[in-house]
Amino acid sequence: MKSLFQNVVVITGASSGIGEELAYAFAREKAIPVLIARNKEKLLAVKESCLKFTSACYVFPCDVAKIEKLDAVVAEIIATTGRIDILVNNAGMSQRSYAIDTPLANDRTIMELNFFSKVAITKKILPQMMHQQSGHIVVISSIVGKFGFPMRTAYSASKHAVQGFFESLRVELMDDNIFVSIVLPGRIKTNISKNALTKDGSVYGIMDHGQANGMDAAVCAQKIIKAIKSNKKELLIGNKELMMVHIRRFLPFLYYRLVKNIKN
Predict the structure, then answer these.
(1) Residue 264 lies in a domain
(2) Per-residue pLDDT averaged across 232-252, rounded?
(3) Angle (deg, nearest 10), helices 117-132 and 153-172
């Protein structure tokens, strides 16, 4: 397993949830977390906790969905740290609305953050990794990147798109010592359902039962760290809900029977 000591790790969506826990997990490995999210105050609080374990941590407040700002942010990160060893594409949002009720603007909002922002920041950072001839790109997808799910049409579509792009990118980079890991979490105990987009553009504001009883985000982060250290190509993380991936693949008739009855 490779060492993460002094690796410069850029984490998007680092102010809460899986991103926050990954920042702490990388810090415990003595890596150098570079934290990106919209909320500067929350990022500074995460940084303070990270510095209990590692020698340096940097904060770059930014809304990664505003792709036009990424050039300046990435340039500033490289100027500050000198290199980027790992990129963790974590920022994203979920959805709680049926397709028939969802304005196209909401579909675009979800795709912009969940897919295009990940592609954009990866393309900004990739030349640096190519120059180094080393690097690791990690993308946090979802198990609904493997199958459809009600009230998640745009969300599931964005995760399917992530799957296709980063699997293809992995093949393109196989001779450049740059690894690509796709992480597919199931139900992880974060605020993703609370922050999900509803049909009128407001946040859902409710913690789903499955989310509330999901895997602890810190445990999830530790599993991701282990996968990165072993250069794992794909990682499913969760509990019994992961069975739906295999049921969809091998027993599609059963999948359709089950999925229509699953509640949030």
Answers:
(1) no
(2) 96
(3) 20
